Please model this.
Amino acid sequence: MNNSPLNSPSPLQRRTMIYYGLADIPIQVANIAVTAYIPNYYGADLGVSLATVATVWLVARLFDAFTDPLIGYLSDRTRTRWGRRRVWMVAAVPIMMLAVYKLFFPDPSVTGTYLLGWMLLLWLGWTMLLIPYYAWAAELSTDYNERSVLTGWRTWIGLAGNVMSKLIPVLALLLFAYGGTREVLVMIGTMMLVLTPVTVFLTVWKVPERNDFVPVSMPVLKGLRIMWSNGPFKRLLAAFFLNYTGTSLSTAVVLFYIRGVLGEEEAGIVMLLTFYGVNLCSVPFWVWLSTHIGKHRAWCLGLMIYWVSGFYMLLGEGDFYLMLPITAVTGFAGGCTWVLPNSMKADVIDLDTLKTGENRAAWFFAVWSLAIKIAASVGPWIALTTLTLSGFDPKPGAQNSPEQVLSVRLLFSFAVPVFYTLAAMLTYNYPITAERHARLRETLERRQARKLQI
Model:
């Protein structure tokens, strides 16, 4: 039996895909909670200035410029009896749990320094979990469409956990009148502390990791030059950077819009539940559509649907529940951004393998993760800095002028579709189609067959 890493493994069982997807739950739950609730809670309730919160988000990403490539580099070169991906995921768990506890259950007298320190630790644990975990997907399957199915399962399961983390606070609000930003953070933080070790343990226990990969030996600078020559990867990276910048900007400002424009103090979690609930339901559709028109074209379609968010400009105080139909449409479109770019990433790694003869999945995902984290800081920085310059006061009950409220309206209504349109323009003629990927895999397998004959 040939165990070459270039040979296509057997089709994945659904059970394996489900167990693999479990570890995405803490990633998804933490991502939305940190981006949407931490800036609002620390800025509006704990008294840390919006300018300081924005600076913390930006400075934290400078740290990732070091840790992301380092974790990718080390993961690709790790060789243990348990594989090269799972050991990093297990090591990430206690780091993430400590950071979540400190960020979600802070003392009232916190400072910007406190926020920065624990954000740095959270992103370190996040990096140690996410990069090896997502790189692992590129090794579990080499098939163009099966990769979309695998990322679809991972996304669906992660979003299901995310929806559950929103549903519980909504039920607490509706049934027990227990709600508000602090209360939501307490509930989500508690879920994170329970779910993180359980889900990661089940993934690393139940999903076998291939141990036939030879650790990467290519020098870093040479590898970076080859990566930079990978045109499809650069285009995909730029498109998703724009995609995620718009997403993170919108997520950072959503609670300010709900509070400052719609006048709703406690029901923001209902909007997030609506958005991610429809996200969850839409994932199978986007996977299906991508098999018929291609991943990149399906992604472009989803991005352009987001122009419906312009209707948010028409809403005002007391219109919270009129917001939800618009949210449902954008939530449906948003399902594509969780699945398709991640599947496309695995395809560009095959192109690199063709050029280098090595599987450098974690190194590619490290660069990808760094771009996402920069976008996740640039988006909130733009949003929070704009609100600061406009003089917008985020505190509950604050009286803001029409001009200050307008700045929130414009950001929330139009930032996402503008960034998404730029991303769609980069993606529309993306060169790696199903046909080209099939030819690429055939070339890789022929090359490996010749090596075995020598």
Notes: The chain has 16 helices and no strands. The radius of gyration is 22 Å.
